[in-house]
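ligand=pyridoxal-5'-phosphate
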Amino acid sequence: MELKYKSTRGGQTEVTASQAILQGLAGDGGLFVPAQIPRLDVSLKELAGMSYQETAYEVMKLFLTDFTEEELKRCIACAYDEKFDTEAIAPLAKVDGAYYLELFHGATIAFKDMALSILPYLMTTAARKNQIKNEIIILTATSGDTGKAALAGFADVPGTRIIVFYPKDGVSPIQERQMVTQKGENTMVVGIRGNFDDAQNGVKAIFGDQELKKELLEAGFQFSSANSINIGRLVPQIVYYVYAYAKLLESGELTEGETLNVVVPTGNFGNILAAYYAKQMGLPVGKLVCASNDNKVLYDFFRTGEYDRNRPFILTTSPSMDILISSNLERLLYRIAGEDAGKDMELMNLLGTEGRYEITPGMREQLSDFCGYYASEKETAAKIKKVYENTGYVMDTHTAVAACAYEKYVDETKDSAKTVIASTASPYKFTRSVMDAIDEKRYSGMTDFELIDELSAISNTDVPNAVKELRTAPVRHKTVCEVNEMKKTVREFLDVR
Ligand SMILES: *Cc1c(COP(=O)(O)O)cnc(C)c1O
């Protein structure tokens, strides 16, 4: 049976999975959601014996029903290959009483790789299925992480080109180096003289420019988005929760049907929503613990039922979670409102105009799967240090926020269920903050590359290739432009003048 996708705002007719992936955002500004969440149709016992790729097929086939078996298996095989530094793709580490699900073994050593390594293949397959002959141009504004993961995913994928804009003086030296050394004939990286908001607004303006759109169509191009609201990013993220459960079953850590809690360091609410979908599919997941840093909008929301973004934006050592509008929360709101598009619109309009909204008591009752905890900067750093000293395991700052949330959850509830903590970045990606947490005095005078060697020594782990390559990789992208030259830069790259 074909699974269709509808908009959370009710203003668009249902589309197929491939059309939803190509469109990204629904025409009415809403997010696409599946008309119903499918149930797993293989047993947990069967899943226990499967590889990551096989598990991915069993999960994704249920959501992407207009992809043929051959198409989907090909996408999966192309995505989850030697780009990952372990055959397990998403290995589990048992540390200090919890299972850390390491989602950082891909090309850019953060969890965005889990979805962005397959999105390009899903998108080009979707284009073929819908008889789209145009070349697909991915436009992205980035504050650091998403841009690199999207570049790595789309590099040299036939039928696509990717242009990434980043704030020239607004990303870390390592992040900039990661981007400007990007290989691939179809990639372009541009530093803009402005901040992240300027980059994002510039990209939005290009997306909305009807004249440019027409010219590009005539030249055989169309734009698309690799943004985290794309259903083609959400569905691949469900896979690793199913896989984690199955591997714990296989190794005898869990018995069949035993409840497993999940803790997720959260920003845009995509990763934890995927865990929620896994639960809806029938995976025996218990609580979904949403972990926040000092930007604790979601913590407050789960405690009070009120979402309020009117607060200072705090820069933390877990920057990928520094976010005050969690876009993917809209999908959860729609569901707990009984799929009432009118209610969803009302709340989203309030968020736009007032920056806040409150859900009804009836909606709150349906949030019982979730709970929220947050960690301060001090608690996060102390957690990294303590776990390192007790076990030798070094975790990154985002994962440490989740580890703190887990500790607080257990203290408060005494829930003793086994727990998976989503580990979203390699400590090598946030080396400075991680090493400062372990011993600030000792490491403060060292350069980033010196710190990387120190981290390797103290954690007894190899420096990931993604980081090693940076030392010698030639800079391939040197374009810098003013904010008002972004459109011109796009035209030049595509040779449309
Ligand atoms: C993007 C990101 C997150 C937040 O994930 P969401 O799906 O946006 O909630 C957490 N940690 C890291 C390292 C990330 O890159």
